[in-house]
């Protein structure tokens, strides 16, 4: 086995050429994932609310957006933004930016569904009670429904973040220098240790994603206990 | 920058055939992987539910590891990395076959089976515990009770989430183009390289994926309405 | 759904026609920016690859771009490209110039322009020694590895229609497939094959065989219809050849005694 290849290049896997060159490796993966989840949360929240709006002019486009994005492979979305968006925009997007946008657009459709499910899971009495105290529909949504729904949805958001972290590996295909790309660069140069390199980066991804998954499970238990106490 | 749209070139003639053959490959690799991942996922779930400690741990480690690593990395591992760990005879045997395709099937199967195992496990949890106890009391062994009593009921509950896993598998199969399986995405990229009409090729192939997804989710909705609601009544 | 795709494409077309055709000269662009953005390979020794010690991209084409940037009086910025991304990236303006082992082909002229030839090679086969493949004719019924978006995959299919071509993202991946016996040969330009073979622990186990399947003159990829920029690049290349700077760079990477030795057997086209 050639574990020394992994050992010698571990710095490159973690940070890329930074600080002497551009940031890459695992650090880039983390940036893509964080930027992606931040954007996807707000976009997904907006689309999810539009999806459950009573106004058809909001509901139908939101539904179409969710169905189209969820029916398309992420790789296709990535290609669309990378190769084809510039044809339409008339200017190019750097690889990392276009990857983040693709990840945001893709993940937001799934977040929108989480938001919808979370709001619909609340008892309708909540909305009725809020309205009867004189709040408008929008006010009731913002001050009463969403705070409860979002709280209950935290575990689902964390799970979506895990998916997103795994999905950042696709950015490699359009040349973003993240962890998978760093691994293939090293693999392409050495050609002697593909097994070791890919096991090493699988473990790196695993550590991050597993910790997040555990966190989501703990939160879920915590939230369930909290709700059970409220009910009794 | 000027860009001439030319859908005719992409949907007819040689390039149209490429897309169709890509679609066939996508459906083929998905179908094989769906069958295998269902079998493997069920087996892993049963191990997890057995009361034998080492089996439970092995099964838990399997699902956690494969769920929490990117499919793309797993594909690369199976394609480039498995060579050094497999015996020479197996490597030679694989090399004589359609290795890219086999590797894609292995990666998709293993990845998806981890998710399927979790779905089935939660399906089994939704079956009252007394069912297992009652069937054990009737003299069935654990495996018999699973096979004849618990799993048939659990499957009815988990069919919708399972189908959405299968749908994920079909969409995920686009990643196998990275190891040279000539699926729909691969063909779209080939057409782009040959004609520089990527826009049209990607539009048509995206539409194909969408058609598959929409048909499947339509089917799930029908199933939900007919079967689950009928039972609830 | 097909219909929706058509409609969306029609909308896109309308947007496209409305987009202004703003094309300031690339040369002014580069000079005012002070930076030349060059698309180069990052996985292809000795043309462009990530150096193990410094983690920087180095290679023959990088030195060539460095010399060009110096002549234009600007800094150089490198952007990794692959065979399938280099033309779209150049056409979209993500890079100013492409120096990525790209063969000057007629059909590519629709999308981009080329400089004069800066490297001359030809397509051959890399096979395992004693593996029973000595020329393209032996490839019938066998699997050949190549790279997406390259000319090699089309050429070898023409030379031997009976073979299956499997395309990868980069050449080292194709070579790994060959090493692991998944394909019986890999095909591309001789200059690349030499570098690939020498990157192996045991280069003697591999040989480069056959006649040239096709000639492969490399040209720098340049934006379509920008003759000022093209002239500047061509004149800079000729200047490098005449002053001996080109030969110096060539010797550094392909000279005698170097790992990837390849004698300089051709002459650059020089305008009087």
Report on this model:
The complex is a heterotrimer of chains A (232), B (233) and C (272). With 232 residues, chain A is mainly alpha-helical. In chain A, 81% of the residues lie in helices and 0% in strands. The longest helix of chain A has 38 residues, at 194-231. The relative contact order of chain A is 0.14. Chain B has 233 residues and is mostly helical. Chain B has ten helices and no strands. In chain B, helix 2 (13-49) crosses helix 6 (99-125) and helix 3 (53-67) packs across helix 6 (99-125). Chain C is built from nine helices and twelve strands. Chain C has helices at residues 2-18, 26-33, 60-72, 86-92, 152-159, 171-179, 190-198, 227-243, 245-254; strands at residues 35-40, 43-44, 48-50, 57-58, 75-80, 97-99, 113-128, 143-147, 164-168, 185-189, 206-209, 215-222. In chain C, helix 3 crosses helix 8 and helix 3 runs antiparallel to helix 9. The longest helix of chain C has 17 residues, at 2-18. Chain C is globular, with a radius of gyration of 20 Å. The chains are: A mainly alpha (232), B mainly alpha (233), C alpha/beta (272). Chains in contact: A-B, A-C, B-C.
Describe the SSE topology.
The complex is a heterotrimer of chains A (about 230), B (about 230) and C (about 270).
Chain A: H1 3-8, H2 10-15, H3 25-51, H4 56-70, H5 74-89, H6 95-121, H7 124-132, H8 137-167, H9 179-190, H10 194-231
Chain B: H1 7-11, H2 13-49, H3 53-67, H4 71-81, H5 88-96, H6 99-125, H7 129-137, H8 142-172, H9 184-195, H10 198-232
Helix pairs in contact in B: 2-3, 2-6, 2-8, 2-9, 3-6, 4-6, 6-8, 7-8, 8-10, 9-10
Chain C: H1 2-18, H2 26-33, E1 35-40, E2 43-44, E3 48-50, E4 57-58, H3 60-72, E5 75-80, H4 86-92, E6 97-99, E7 113-128, E8 143-147, H5 152-159, E9 164-168, H6 171-179, E10 185-189, H7 190-198, E11 206-209, E12 215-222, H8 227-243, H9 245-254
Parallel strand pairs in C: 1-5, 1-6, 8-9, 8-10
Antiparallel strand pairs in C: 2-3, 3-4, 7-10, 7-11, 7-12
């Amino acid at each position: 086995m050639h574990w020394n290849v992994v050992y010698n290049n571990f710095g490159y896997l973690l940070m890329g050429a930074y600080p002497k060159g551009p940031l890459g490796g695992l650090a880039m993966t983390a940036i893509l994932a964080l930027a992606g989840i931040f954007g996807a949360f707000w976009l997904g929240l907006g689309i999810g609310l539009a999806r459950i709006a009573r106004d058809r002019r909001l509901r139908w486009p939101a539904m179409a957006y969710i169905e189209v994005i969820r029916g398309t492979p992420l790789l296709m979305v990535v290609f669309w933004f990378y190769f084809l968006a510039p044809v339409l925009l008339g200017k190019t997007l750097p690889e990392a930016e276009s990857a983040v946008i693709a990840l945001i657009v893709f993940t937001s459709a799934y977040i929108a569904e989480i938001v919808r499910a979370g709001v619909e899971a609340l008892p309708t009495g909540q909305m009725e009670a809020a309205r009867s105290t004189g709040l408008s529909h929008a006010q009731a949504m913002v001050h009463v429904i969403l705070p409860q729904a979002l709280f209950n949805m935290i575990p689902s958001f964390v799970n979506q973040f895990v998916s997103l972290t795994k999905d950042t590996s696709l950015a490699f295909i359009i040349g973003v220098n993240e962890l998978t790309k760093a691994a293939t660069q090293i693999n392409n140069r050495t050609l002697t240790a593909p097994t070791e390199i890919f096991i090493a980066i699988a473990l790196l991804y695993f550590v991050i994603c597993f910790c997040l998954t555990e966190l989501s499970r703990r939160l879920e238990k915590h939230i369930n206990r909290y709700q059970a106490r409220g009910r009794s | 920058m000027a860009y001439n749209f030319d859908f005719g070139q992409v949907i007819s003639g040689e390039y149209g055939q490429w897309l169709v053959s890509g679609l066939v490959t996508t459906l083929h690799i998905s179908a094989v992987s769906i069958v295998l991942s269902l079998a493997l996922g069920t087996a892993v779930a049963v191990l997890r539910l057995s009361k034998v400690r080492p089996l439970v741990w092995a099964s838990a480690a399997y699902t956690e590891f494969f769920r929490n690593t990117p499919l793309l990395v797993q594909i690369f591992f199976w394609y480039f990395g498995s060579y050094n760990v497999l015996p020479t005879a197996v490597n030679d045997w694989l090399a004589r076959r359609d290795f890219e395709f086999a590797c894609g099937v292995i990666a998709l199967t293993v990845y998806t089976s981890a998710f399927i195992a979790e779905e089935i496990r939660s399906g089994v949890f939704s079956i009252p515990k007394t069912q297992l106890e009652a069937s054990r009391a009737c003299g069935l062994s654990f495996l018999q009770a699973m096979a004849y009593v618990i799993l048939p009921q659990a499957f009815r509950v988990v069919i919708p989430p399972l189908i959405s896993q299968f749908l994920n598998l079909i969409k995920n199969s686009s990643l196998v183009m990275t190891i040279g399986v000539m699926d729909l995405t691969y063909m779209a990229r080939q057409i782009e390289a040959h004609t520089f009409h990527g826009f049209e090729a990607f539009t048509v192939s995206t539409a194909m994926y969408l058609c598959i997804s929409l048909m499947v989710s339509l089917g799930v909705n029908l199933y939900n309405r007919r079967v689950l609601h009928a039972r609830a009544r | 759904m097909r219909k929706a795709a058509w409609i969306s494409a029609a909308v896109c077309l309308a947007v496209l026609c409305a987009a202004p055709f703003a094309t300031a000269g690339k040369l002014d662009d580069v000079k005012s920016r002070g930076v030349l953005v060059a698309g180069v390979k990052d996985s292809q020794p000795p043309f462009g690859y990530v150096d193990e010690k410094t983690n920087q991209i180095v290679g023959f084409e990088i030195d060539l771009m460095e010399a060009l940037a110096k002549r234009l009086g600007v800094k150089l910025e490198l952007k990794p490209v692959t065979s399938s991304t280099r033309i779209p990236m150049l056409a979209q303006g993500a890079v100013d110039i492409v120096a990525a082992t790209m063969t000057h082909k007629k059909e590519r002229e629709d999308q981009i322009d080329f400089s004069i030839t800066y490297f001359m090679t030809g397509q051959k086969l890399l096979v395992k020694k004693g593996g029973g493949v000595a020329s393209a004719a032996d490839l019938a019924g066998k699997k050949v590895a190549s790279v997406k978006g390259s000319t090699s995959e089309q050429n070898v299919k023409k030379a031997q229609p009976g073979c299956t071509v499997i395309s990868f993202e980069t050449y080292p991946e194709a070579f790994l497939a060959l090493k692991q016996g998944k394909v019986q040969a890999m095909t591309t330009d001789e200059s690349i094959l030499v570098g690939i073979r020498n990157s192996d622990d045991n280069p003697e186990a591999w040989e480069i065989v056959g006649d040239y399947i096709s000639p492969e003159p490399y040209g720098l990829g340049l934006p379509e219809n920008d003759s000022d920029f093209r002239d500047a690049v061509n004149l800079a290349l000729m200047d490098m050849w005449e002053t001996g700077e080109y030969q110096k760079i060539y010797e550094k990477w392909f000279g005698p005694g170097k790992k990837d030795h390849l004698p300089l057997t051709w002459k650059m086209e020089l305008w009087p």
